[in-house]
Write a structure and sequence with these properties.
With about 240 residues, the protein is of the alpha/beta class. It has one domain (about 1-235): Alpha/Beta hydrolase fold, catalytic domain (Rossmann fold, 3-Layer(aba) Sandwich), CATH 3.40.50.1820. Helices cover about 35% and strands about 20% of the residues. It contains nine helices and ten strands. The strands form two sheets. Strands 1-3-2-4-5-8-9-10 form an eight-stranded mixed beta sheet, with helices on both faces. Strands 6-7 form a two-stranded antiparallel ribbon. The longest helix is centred in the C-terminal third of the chain and has 14 residues, at about 210-225. The radius of gyration is 17 Å and the shape is globular.
Length: about 240
């Protein structure tokens, strides 16, 4: 786990928990961090791709780091949204496409119970996400920079963390796309009240989707003024 800082240290403090495989040097992740840094002192948590224990490898390092910050808000994406949901922090939270459930097809439903039982930390399971599922701005070259494989131990720990999710906090806001095929939109709908879900038309990463500026405006409003600033489901073009 590593942490990087952006923006004016005198601005309100924002913790950003990135998704699995997101790197600040990636074009669209960098775009997001640079835009956030115009309004916040940004502290970005960059996740390791080798994870065999959710608590020790993911949650605790972020919690320890965050305990030393005077936080205004937490912004998270995908796997980062699973981590952020477990953090005992007194700050408003904005989740972007949080990974609160697996999006499985028929074959996946059959194989998944066996995979998560394997006591193997070696990464040989393909991640399987196509560039167009991430966002229409995502190029194959950039997608190739991400991790290609995960381990059964990773799957087991993510599944365990999803099953132990704490209650949805009222100061939280979710942004997601109904076309997301990376995380389970159904799991998001089961967990978050409709009035706390803001829909956009795009891929898993709104910041790698066309129209991202319009979505970012709503994200910033939720971070700065709370979920009431963008309350109610909507479809923003992204």
């Amino acid at each position: 786990m590593r942490f990087e800082t952006y923006g004016d240290g005198e601005a309100p403090t924002l913790l950003v928990v990135l998704g699995f495989g997101n790197q600040p040097e990636h074009e669209h992740v960098g775009w997001l961090l640079d835009r956030l840094a115009e309004s916040f002192a940004v502290h970005a948590a960059v996740l390791p791709v080798d994870m065999t224990d959710f608590e020790s490898d993911y949650r605790r390092p972020v919690e320890r780091y965050a305990s030393g910050l005077d936080l205004t808000a937490v912004l998270s994406h995908s796997t980062g949204g699973l981590i952020a949901a477990h953090l005992p922090l007194d700050a408003r939270r904005v989740y972007c496409s949080p990974w609160w459930g697996f999006d499985l097809d028929g074959v996946g439903d059959l194989v998944f119970p066996f995979v998560r039982r394997l006591p193997v930390g070696y990464r040989f399971l393909p991640t399987g996400a196509e560039p167009e599922a991430i966002g229409d701005l995502k190029t194959p070259a950039e997608a190739a920079e991400g991790p290609d494989f995960i381990s059964p131990a990773f799957v087991r720990e993510i599944d365990r963390a999803q099953r132990r999710l704490p209650a949805f906090r009222p100061e939280s806001q979710v942004f997601c796309s109904l076309r997301d095929r990376v995380v389970s939109v159904t799991a998001i709908g089961r967990r978050a009240p409709p009035g706390r879900v803001r829909l956009y038309d795009g891929g898993h990463e709104f910041f790698a989707s066309s129209g991202r500026n319009a979505v970012l405006e709503d994200v910033l409003r939720a971070l700065e003024d709370g979920p009431e600033a963008v309350a109610g489901p909507s479809m923003r073009e992204a």
